[in-house]
Specification:
The chain is an all-beta fold. It has two helices and 31 strands. Helix content is 3%, strand content 46%. It starts with 21 loop residues before the first strand and ends with a strand.
């Protein structure tokens, strides 16, 4: 287990004064976004979108539009489900188009077309997710609707490993901490699997975590044995997989099916989530209090499709409404503060039970103890 960094409180998570709320119009629905290593550039993709933006604290600027080509050159390689930036090479992007290929892009090319290489034939159906290895930048992992996962060597331009899953692959992730030979994958049958990339026959762990499709998973950035998953059953589950039998640490019950989850940086127990259906809210949960969001953003007019944290105070979100929004945690709504702080319940024999917060109890010094009998 790695050493745990000190967790910051929200009072210490001060948003720099230069950061502002930004609403940037992209004029078309967005599917996925990612930043480069230092968070100064943003790649954002969709069915009719592929742009690179320069991120300033108070404004966004389009640097490159990779679809700015003659119409006859635009094909399915330019319509993507996912985009990932190489963690070491600032000039390399990888995308997961809807045609089953995995595409590498070289944004330093002086030609209008930045396409560098297409891995074709590894997948027979659409690729849903990609993941670069955080310390081996030439190692790229993909997960597809055809039940398979593949690892590519982006330097040698070849497929080096293939893995067979039990159902369509919804998400794949390499961990950020030094568990370098492992990766996680979640599937349409509700399974979460942990694989050792050196052994492609069977996963090292297999968890049945959801009653419907498992849409996403995420390794904890500080606790290397913690991983969470979320799915159509409206649940977010956190597991400690250190022991042979994984331990379920927490279960969060969301209002709608959960399509994306990420950990909030600097806050060990904070989870961020969104849904692709019927909900335009981004929720921040504390898994120690799983029944009501710790904070939330409701800025979009349609379903949120992806989000990421620039730091623990600044969140980027994109949506089907064609908007990219930079949001400040200090301006988030706090649902728990609007919740009724008092609870009452009658027992069949007429007794009334009352529960309230300690702050209210202190204010009302004359409050009767928690149970009263009706006369």
């Amino acid at each position: 287990m790695s050493r745990r960094p000190k967790e910051r409180t929200d009072s210490e998570s001060v948003t720099p004064l230069t950061y502002k709320k930004i609403v940037f119009s992209l004029d078309t629905p967005c599917s996925s976004l990612c930043t480069n290593r230092d968070g100064t550039r943003l790649a954002i993709v969709g069915r009719k979108l592929f742009k690179i933006l320069k991120l300033n604290p108070d404004q966004f600027e389009v640097v490159t539009n990779l679809r700015d080509l003659p119409h006859k050159q635009i094909n399915l390689n330019y319509s993507s489900n996912d985009v990932q930036w190489n963690p070491k090479d600032e000039t390399q992007l990888a995308t997961a188009p809807t045609n089953g290929s995995v595409i590498l892009w070289d944004i330093s090319k002086r030609t209008k077309s930045k396409l560098a290489h297409a891995f074709e034939g590894s997948h027979q159906r659409a690729v849903n997710k990609l993941s670069f290895h955080p310390r081996e930048p030439n190692c790229l992992l993909s997960g597809s609707q055809d039940n398979s996962m593949a690892i590519f060597d982006t330097r040698q331009k070849l497929e080096v490993a293939k893995y067979k899953g039990p159902d369509s692959v919804r998400d794949v992730k390499f961990p950020t901490l030094p568990s370098g030979d492992y990766f996680a994958a979640c599937f349409d049958n509700g399974m979460l699997q942990i694989w050792d990339r050196r052994h492609g026959d069977n996963p090292v762990k297999q968890l049945s975590v959801h009653s419907g499709p498992a849409y996403c998973c995420s390794w904890h950035p500080d606790l290397e044995n913690y991983i969470m998953s979320a799915g159509r059953d409206k649940m977010i589950k956190v597991f400690d997989i250190q022991q042979a039998r994984a331990k379920e640490v927490s279960t969060i019950h969301a209002l709608f099916s959960v399509a994306r989850v990420r950990w909030r940086p600097g806050q060990r127990s904070h989870i961020t989530s969104c849904s692709h259906f019927l909900d335009n809210m981004v929720a921040i949960w504390d898994f120690r209090r799983p029944y009501i969001p710790y904070a939330s953003f409701v800025e979009h007019t349609d379903d949120v499709t992806d989000f990421l944290w620039l730091n623990d105070s600044v969140l980027l979100t994109c949506s089907k409404d064609g908007k990219l929004i930079q949001q400040l945690f200090s301006e988030a709504e706090r649902p728990a503060e609007r919740a009724t702080p008092v609870g009452l319940s009658f027992r069949p024999d007429g007794c009334l039970a009352q529960a309230c917060s300690e702050s209210l109890a202190c204010k009302n010094k004359t409050a009767h103890p928690s149970t009263l009998r009706e006369h």
